[in-house]
Specification:
single chain; 375 residues; mainly alpha; 4 domains; 24 helices; 76% helix; DUF2336; UCP035865; ARM-type_fold; DUF2336 domain-containing protein
């Protein structure tokens, strides 16, 4: 009888009164004072209100139910598919929505719906992955700003792939402590691409020089990332770089001369097909001919392999006071005769010489800063 009387009253009540009744009905349903029969009656009445022609009525019902885990699931799902203002109220807050519901909303909803889901506290992994896959730039930025979102590990690589060209996305990703080394390297490459494509930069620097500077900066940043990466992330970083054709002789000689031994070993293992333990043993104690064979197996020209052998031996014999600049200088001296006979070696030593100058300038800046602080 109560439900019948309520339905009759709805037919003549104003929209404002119906909205007040809808809100009160929702709050009453969530309270503990209703018996089973009355709760069922309230559920029936709320189901009827879903078809109310006045949006303010449905909004009032959504506001009453949105934050409660006791809200009826059928009502919440219906409100989540209502017009934007009403749907937003429950999509952004309702704990009743399950992971699968959120993924469905991401797939079928518009950009605003996806943004609301992306900003939900404690957003689960499956929903995060869905936003990353189908969301637009704004959705993904909101997701990255959501500090409580539970990201799957591979989502960061996907974000870098889709939106790494955007400076804000790069900033948010690089600020994360849990960002893998291979993703950081992807972002470094994106920065290089952005600089190379910049009209302002290209008007100041000649195209050929800009391309060379971009490659060198990317290599230096990559090696910095590799030097700081935990051993568990090196394999993924190296595999990404191998697939992109980035494990060039220039990068490898840079790694060798600057003492990035772990990265160099991982890269040589990937390129040569030798096991990691075997490569490390050869670098540490292998004879000259065995070292040369390993470098050649990694795809290096025979003459270039000789330079790498010489560099490896220099590092084996290096003392604690030896620096990268010193290693570069000695390597250039040891391989000068070979460079006179082989153009490929001459080109490689030119890279080593440039690295030496860079290391000397870096050491000079560090000394000057230390002196200024001491003063």
């Amino acid at each position: 009888m109560i439900i019948e009387a309520f339905l009759r009253w709805l037919e003549t009540a104003s929209a404002g009164d119906r909205a007040k009744a809808a809100n009160a009905l929702g709050r009453a349903y969530l309270g503990s004072g209703l018996g089973a029969d009355r709760r069922q009656a309230a559920l029936t009445a709320m189901s009827h209100l879903l078809d109310d022609p006045a949006p303010q009525v449905r909004l009032a019902l959504a506001q009453a139910l949105a934050t409660s885990s006791e809200a009826p699931r059928a009502i919440i799902l219906a409100l989540a598919e209502d017009q934007t203002e009403i749907a937003c109220t429950v999509v952004a807050q309702s704990p009743v929505l399950r992971d699968a519901d959120l993924v469905d909303l991401i797939g079928r909803g518009d950009g605003l719906t996806r943004s609301l889901v992306a900003a939900r506290p404690g957003l689960p992994r499956t929903a995060c992955a869905a936003v990353v896959e189908v969301g637009d730039l704004g959705n993904v930025i909101l997701l990255l700003e959501n500090e409580s979102a539970e990201f799957p590990r591979n989502s960061f690589a996907r974000i870098a792939e889709r939106f790494g060209h955007d400076a804000e996305v790069r900033r948010l990703l690089l600020a994360r402590d849990d960002l893998a080394a291979d993703v950081r390297q992807r972002l470094v490459a994106k920065v290089g691409e952005a600089l190379a494509a910049s009209g302002l930069v290209s008007t100041v620097i000649a195209r050929q020089r800009l391309e060379r500077l971009t490659v060198e900066a990317t290599q230096n940043a990559t090696l910095t990332i590799a030097g700081a990466a935990p051993p568990s992330e090196l394999a993924a970083l190296v595999e990404h770089m191998r697939a992109c054709g980035m494990l060039t002789p220039a990068l490898l000689i840079n790694a060798l001369c600057t003492g990035k031994a772990d990265f160099l070993a991982e890269a040589l293992a990937a390129l040569s097909g030798l096991g990691d333990a075997r490569v490390r043993a050869l670098l540490a104690t292998g004879r000259m001919h065995a070292l040369r064979a390993m470098f050649e197996a990694a795809g290096l020209h025979r003459d270039i392999a000789g330079v790498f052998v010489a560099g490896t031996v220099l590092w084996r014999n290096a003392g604690v006071m030896d620096t990268a600049a010193g290693i570069c200088e000695q390597l250039i001296s040891d391989c000068r005769d070979l460079a006179d006979r082989s153009p490929v070696v001459a080109d490689l030593l030119a890279i080593v010489e440039k690295l030496q100058r860079s290391e000397l300038r870096a050491a000079s800046r560090s000394y000057a800063q230390a002196a200024a602080l001491a003063a």
